[in-house]
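Propose amino acids for all 618 sites.
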């Protein structure tokens, strides 16, 4: 008689025995149940469209065309593409793979990957928190303009309003004055020739600019003059946060469905604007102004620096958003394919947006009988001054205005979703027991975001907006990205990391291994240092128009900018002090910089083997 133990497969979830014959059939179901505890993307394209919406944002429309024109036109595409390959794509692929493998957001991921550098995750969450405070203000402005666009005529048309100054200059009113053989000067039409000789030259301000600064922002004379909160904008900001809350109240399950519209609708509008733009007089001149290559510019460091900065901030690595979105992926998702699709789509969208913007600017320059360069602007100036001024000269101005600002709203929402989800995920990953109250957590973050954003809609709000926008996601983000790249490629090991990637997406070729190893170990860190040095050399204190900020404001800006990196340093110091072992400082650093025992793949071991009671065999 012989005793032979019998192995049984026991579910790690239910503790019940699962027969080998049915194990494969329930594996996927139990894997899904594990993922459901934290949450995961439910649709096939949820993640891809969320990633696309996060990476393709307002900067593609209102910053890239300006940079392209300013750096040699079509020649700018060469350094932009190069920087995409050696800096943007490697960082994006690294973060997507890292988070998908671990199934964790940044706050906990780095705690397990490298306890000494746990602050990297906290720093990313802090960056996302600060940026989401002022980013939603842009959406509030957009909502204001979208609603105002339903007025007939558009409220920023003409100079005869209570909010216009004597410097307001309307080309339509000037044209009517010239038809009467008069002279248009400081909002008035003068017929007396003797008075004209006494006129002095004054700065001309278009009605749209005065509407934005004097009516919408009610801008004070400086950052030190805070003034009052704009009641109208406070309601718009509340509406913006309400939209974000409703779309994120169920986490990625709800936001993953919204992005099917918000990520794709901007392309519909861009195509409509392009078709309308190329039919306008002067559009060809504007497009040639945009495309005409200046190959000599390729010899300057400026064009390479601008391309590197633009691609880095376009794909937004080290903000925590990429890590957060990828952490909800299924383990076998092909994140390599997703990274390439989004990176290529980003550059094509930016290039196409340039055609749209410059065809419109060409028309505006034609209507004003001036050069395209004189009406060119970027950022908020393009969205809330140049385009509103141009749309008043189109047929059906109300339609095009509503359409444009609705496009801006959808572009901004996708990025805001990722920023807020980064903060929420950071909280819930750190305190998993709060998952049962996720709705309350999302509501709490939205409330904090709304209250924190009120400073940006005071009379000095635009000054604060420019200050935080310049410093919040600059120095610290670049430093965090550099440290992250060195950590993964050198400390964790690029070979080991590629093996983790192959666990998820299958075996890769030797060329794949060599190519990404060289990029992550050498090329990308060197490029990040170049961007950091370039930003340092090009640094100028923040300004808004001709307004020079006081010294204390610059100090506040530097504090905001370096705070995330300060968190990284302080966390590392705390970890070293908290280690009460008798190891030397160097030994502690070596020990704490390595992955912990908790670092493992997110693919849960669905079964473990147990011995059954001995069975008697004759």
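Proposal:
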């Amino acid at each position: 008689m012989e005793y032979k133990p019998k192995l049984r497969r026991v579910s790690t979830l239910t503790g019940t025995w699962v027969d080998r014959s049915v194990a494969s059939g329930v594996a996927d179901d139990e894997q899904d149940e594990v993922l459901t505890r934290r949450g995961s993307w439910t649709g096939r394209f949820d993640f891809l469209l969320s990633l696309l919406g996060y990476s393709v944002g307002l900067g593609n429309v209102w910053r890239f065309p300006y940079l392209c024109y300013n750096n040699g036109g079509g020649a700018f595409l060469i350094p932009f593409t190069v920087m995409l390959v050696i800096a943007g794509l490697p960082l994006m692929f690294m973060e997507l793979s890292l988070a998908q493998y671990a199934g964790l957001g940044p706050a906990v991921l780095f705690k397990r990957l490298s306890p000494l550098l746990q602050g990297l995750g906290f720093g990313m969450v802090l960056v996302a928190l600060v940026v989401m405070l002022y980013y939603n203000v842009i959406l509030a402005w957009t909502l204001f303009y979208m609603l105002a666009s339903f007025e007939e005529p558009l409220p920023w048309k003409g100079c005869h309003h209570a909010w216009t100054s004597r410097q307001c200059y309307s080309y339509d009113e000037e044209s009517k004055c010239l038809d009467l053989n008069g002279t248009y000067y400081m909002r008035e039409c003068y017929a007396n020739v003797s008075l004209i000789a006494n006129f002095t030259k004054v700065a001309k301000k278009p009605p749209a600019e005065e509407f934005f600064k004097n009516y919408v922002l009610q801008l004070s004379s400086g950052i030190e003059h805070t003034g009052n909160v704009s009641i109208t904008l406070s309601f718009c900001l509340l509406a913006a946060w309400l939209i974000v809350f409703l779309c994120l109240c169920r986490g990625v399950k709800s936001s993953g469905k919204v992005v099917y519209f918000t990520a794709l609708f901007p392309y519909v509008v861009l195509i409509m604007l392009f078709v309308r733009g190329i039919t306008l007089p002067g559009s060809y001149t504007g497009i040639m102004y945009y495309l005409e290559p200046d190959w000599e510019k390729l010899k300057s460091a400026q064009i390479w620096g601008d391309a590197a900065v633009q691609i880095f901030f376009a794909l937004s690595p080290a903000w925590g958003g990429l890590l957060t979105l990828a952490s909800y992926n299924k383990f076998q998702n092909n994140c390599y394919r997703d990274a390439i699709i989004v990176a290529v789509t980003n550059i094509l969208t930016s290039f196409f947006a340039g055609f749209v913007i410059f065809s419109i600017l060409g028309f505006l320059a034609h209507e004003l009988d001036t050069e395209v360069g004189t009406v060119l602007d970027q950022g908020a100036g393009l969205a809330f001054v140049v385009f509103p001024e141009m749309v008043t000269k189109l047929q059906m101005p109300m339609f095009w205005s509503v359409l444009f600002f609705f496009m801006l709203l959808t572009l901004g929402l996708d990025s805001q979703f990722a920023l807020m989800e980064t903060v929420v995920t950071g909280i819930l990953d750190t305190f998993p027991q709060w998952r049962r109250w996720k709705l309350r957590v999302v509501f709490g973050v939205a409330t904090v975001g709304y209250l924190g954003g009120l400073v940006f809609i005071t009379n000095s709000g635009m000054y604060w907006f420019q200050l935080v926008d310049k410093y919040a996601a600059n120095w610290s983000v670049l430093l965090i990205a550099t440290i992250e790249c060195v950590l993964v490629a050198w400390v964790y090991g690029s070979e080991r990391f590629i093996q983790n990637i192959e666990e998820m997406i299958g075996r890769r070729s030797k060329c794949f291994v060599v190519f990404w190893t060289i990029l992550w170990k050498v090329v990308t860190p060197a490029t990040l240092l170049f961007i950091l040095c370039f930003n340092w050399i090009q640094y100028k204190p923040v300004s808004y128009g001709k307004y020079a900020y006081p010294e204390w404001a610059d100090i506040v800006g530097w504090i905001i900018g370096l705070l995330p990196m300060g968190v990284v340093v302080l966390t590392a110091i705390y970890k070293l002090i908290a280690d009460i072992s008798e190891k030397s400082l160097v030994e502690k650093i070596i020990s704490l910089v390595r992955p912990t025992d908790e670092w493992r793949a997110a693919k849960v071991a669905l079964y473990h083997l147990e011995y059954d009671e001995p069975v008697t065999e004759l």
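Residues 59 and 593 are 36 Å apart (CA to CA). The radius of gyration is 28 Å.
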